[in-house]
Amino acid sequence: MGNVHALGYLGLGVRDLGAWEHYATDILGMQAEHTDSDGTPTLLLRMDERRYRLALTAGEDELTYVGWEVAGPDELDAVVRTLDAAGVAHKEDAALAELRGVRRLVSCTDPAGVTLEFHYGATAPKLPFVSPTGATFVTTTPDGRDLGLGHVVVTCADPDTAIAFYRDVLGFKISDYIVPIPGLVLTFLHVNPRHHSLAVAPNRPGADTKTEINHFMIEVADVDTVGRALDKVHAQKIQKLATLGRHTNDKMLSFYMHSPSGFGVEYGTQGLLIDDDNWSVVTYDAAAYWGHEFDQD
Ligand SMILES: [Fe+2]
User: Fold this and answer.
1) Nearest partner of 153 among 7, 1, 23, 2, judged by Cα
2) Confidence category of residue 54, pLDDT binned at 50, 70, 90
3) Share of the chain above pLDDT 90, in %
4) 219 alpha carbon to ligand 1 midpoint, in Å?
5) Which of 22, 26, 50, 108 fits as disulfide partner to 90, beta carbons 3.0 to 4.6 Å?
6) pLDDT averaged over every residue in the chain
7) What is the CA(234)–ligand 1 centre distance, in A?
């Protein structure tokens, strides 16, 4: 395993901060904090001990950065050495670290063009996280191992090159593959016991060659929280992307919906934890055992 140990935070540009605030607090169950990021209105969304896990900045609807957490200074230095050895340009930025509320931050760009921020020392306020919907988010194992905020799925023109970077340079491990139709390979990677923190897929045929966020997933501790969120989604006529279902690979019981930015959010529970000493990569021929039907609502 490499030096990255969790998906620490995500940065998203969003056109409608007001819609996101309602969505994140009332549907997802996160706490919202208004701030500004170098003068740009920003909404920080909290879901556990950390001050925030999602940072939404006013702008175009897009993934702006992915914060990959390392354990501490030695591990960050080790990431820098591996980037150097691989000839990957990178930059340590003290002002950006201050802005993100971390001790140190080194950024680079992955082969698909996604900005990555390796960091440690994230801010944890003394006041506890209190969910407006009573949700408890799963960001650690029961024995306290860091699982990160959830997972992010990115589509790009050249998945193989991106996956090689994550494996060979950063030390991510392949979890498994889903090949729902011949020729379409979805690749799942882990950095800790969470089944996947990252998945990479090719752009849809005929779609733009732009790298895009497909969805991010957040996990809650119990099925009733998923059900209550689903009730609200129906009541507020939020467009679902996929009905409730159980994934084959990570066994997540979840549904998918449109965020106010258009890209998806997966809301689920019961995700599988990987034991690397007893794990074999397999290829699934479907993404779900049941459900996850494209929704017409
Ligand atoms: Fe997912």
Assistant:
1) 7
2) very high
3) 94
4) 10
5) 108
6) 96
7) 20
Centroid of ligand 1 to alpha carbon of 36 (angstroms): 29
Grade residue 207 by pLDDT with cuts at 50, 70 and 90: confident
**How many A from CA of 143 to the centre of ligand 1?**
24
Tell how far the Cα of 93 is from the centroid of ligand 1, in angstroms. 31
pTM value is: 0.97
In the reported structure, the alpha carbon of residue 287 is separated from the centroid of ligand 1 by a whole-number distance in angstroms of 10
Question: 237 CA to middle of ligand 1, Å?
Answer: 22
Q: How far is the CA of 125 from the centre of ligand 1 (A)?
A: 29
The encoded tokens of residue 157 equal: 């023109």
DSSP code string of the chain: --SEEEEEEEEEEES-HHHHHHIIIIII--EEEEEEETTEEEEEEE-SSSS-SEEEEESSSEEEEEEEEESSHHHHHHHHHHHHHTT--EEE-HHHHHHHT-SEEEEEE-TTS-EEEEEE-----SSPP--TT---B--B-TT--B--S-EEEEEES-HHHHHHIIIIIT--EEEEEE-SSTT--EEEEESSSBS-SEEEEEPPTTS-S--EEEEEEEEBS-HHHHHHHHHHHHHTTPPEEEEEEEESSS--EEEEEE-TTSSEEEEEE---B--GGG----EES-SEEEE-PBP--
C-alpha dihedral (19, 130, 193, 288), degrees to nearest 10: -50
